[in-house]
Automatic annotation (TrEMBL):
Residues 209-333 form the Alcohol dehydrogenase-like C-terminal domain. Residues 39-168 form the Alcohol dehydrogenase-like N-terminal domain. Its cofactor is Zn(2+). Homodimer. GO terms for biological process: formaldehyde catabolic process. InterPro entries: ADH-like_C, ADH-like_N, ADH_Zn_CS, GroES-like_sf, NAD(P)-bd_dom_sf. GO terms for molecular function: alcohol dehydrogenase (NAD+) activity; S-(hydroxymethyl)glutathione dehydrogenase [NAD(P)+] activity; zinc ion binding. Keywords: Metal-binding, NAD, Oxidoreductase, Zinc. This is Alcohol dehydrogenase. It catalyses: a secondary alcohol + NAD(+) = a ketone + NADH + H(+); a primary alcohol + NAD(+) = an aldehyde + NADH + H(+). GO terms for cellular component: cytosol.
């Protein structure tokens, strides 16, 4: 147990609370309860806005519940720990992750999965070990709901020990923050899910933060040709910073399909295709763009309209496969420290992902930038 002055007591602090779907967040004073068994209370240093936050912020029906504290990409410092917590102590520098890594279940102990079966991923409003419980309350004592096990849009938050990863204190906070979700998802997909090989061909559909992280991962894996597909022509120059070698703008190919163009560019189809937007039609195009015999299509985007993905059974017979992943197949406690070391060793490029920075009081500006499609990641500093 931590021995600092706040350990074991509730903390009053500021949080950005969403009280209704799509409404601007309100900076309020909230009370954060002390951590219970297997829980850790963290002082958030910085957080960033991910498209997943925006998606659920817009939801009027369940799992959209309010009031709620969003945010799940974050870096912080452990303030205190609850009973049975031995992995962390006060003062540890950590990143918070939405996907649990419990060390105990068959999935967490297997190299074949990163989806914890003890605490399966869900958008529950409470804690992993008690989905109905909240560690947040407002000025009137009413509970405020959690979001994907993290809720980082607060000066302090409480997370389960399974959703916390210790990182090297040499990591700059804003760079470590990126490893919580988006960058790890993209880089991990090339490494843990696809297994991209030296000299292979890769096509990335959608060059947002996750798509560009796929490009970065493909570069690290030694891909020979990395093709970006996006309707924004500016993404080609931006993508070159991460390793993009070629670019296809669907608006510039006339009557030809995206798959026809990519099959021609690769001499038969890309070895690996990644869909990073969340459109069933684009998932179909990615699959059609992959090479017969061994082509892999990895789905990283969540279909934004709830549409099914339909693949003709005839094409499956040719040996192509399609697969999805959560957090890019990354096992948080094992793999995020590896990515942090790659950054410190100057192998992993993180700096160019940060295009905006705001102070906590201006958190709604981050939402405006995301809705405008401006930039990649906006870092939100809690005390700067």
């Amino acid at each position: 147990m931590a021995s600092n002055v706040t350990a074991g007591s509730s903390i009053r602090c500021k949080a950005a609370v969403c009280r209704a779907a799509g409404e601007a967040l309100v900076i309020e004073e909230v009370e954060v309860a002390p951590p219970k068994a297997w829980e850790v209370r963290v002082k958030i240093v910085c957080t960033s806005l991910c498209h997943t936050d925006v998606t659920f912020w817009r939801m009027k029906d369940f799992p959209g519940v309010y009031p709620r504290i969003f945010g799940h990409e974050a870096f912080g410092v452990v303030e205190s720990v609850g009973e049975h917590v031995e992995e962390f102590k006060a003062g540890d520098t950590v990143v918070l992750v939405l996907l649990s890594d419990c060390y105990d279940c068959v999935d967490c102990n297997s190299p074949r999965s990163n989806i914890c079966s003890l605490f399966p991923f869900q958008v529950a409003p409470g804690m992993p070990r008690d989905p109905t419980a909240s560690r947040f309350s407002d000025a009137m004592g009413r509970p405020i709901h959690h979001f994907v096990n993290v809720s980082s849009f607060a000066e302090y938050t409480v997370v389960d020990v399974a959703n916390l990863v210790k990182v090297d204190p040499a990591m700059p906070p804003e760079k470590a923050c990126l490893l919580s979700c988006g960058v790890s998802t993209g880089v991990g997909a090339t490494w843990k899910v696809a297994g991209v090989e030296q000299g292979s061909t890769v096509a990335v559909f959608g060059l947002g933060a996750v798509g560009l992280a796929v490009v970065e991962g493909a570069r690290l894996r030694g891909a020979g040709k990395i093709i970006g597909v996006d309707v924004n022509p500016d993404k080609f120059e931006l993508g070159k910073k991460f390793g993009l070698t070629d670019f296809v703008n669907p608006n510039d190919i006339g009557e030809r399909s995206i798959s026809e163009v990519i099959i021609e560019m690769t001499g038969g189809g890309a070895d690996y295709c990644f869909e990073c937007i969340g459109l069933a039609s684009l998932m179909q195009s990615a699959y059609e763009s992959s090479r017969k015999g061994w082509g892999k299509t990895i789905i990283l985007g969540v279909e934004m309209h709830g549409q099914p993905l339909c693949i003709g059974s005839h094409s499956v017979l040719y040996g192509k496969c399609i697969m999805g992943s959560l957090l890019g197949g990354i096992k948080p406690k094992t793999d995020i420290p590896i990515l942090a070391k790659k950054y410190l060793d100057k192998d992993l490029h993180l700096d160019s992902f940060i295009t905006h920075e705001v102070v906590f009081q201006d958190i709604n500006k981050a939402f405006e930038l995301m809705n405008q499609g401006s930039g990649l990641r906006c870092i939100i500093w809690m005390d700067k």
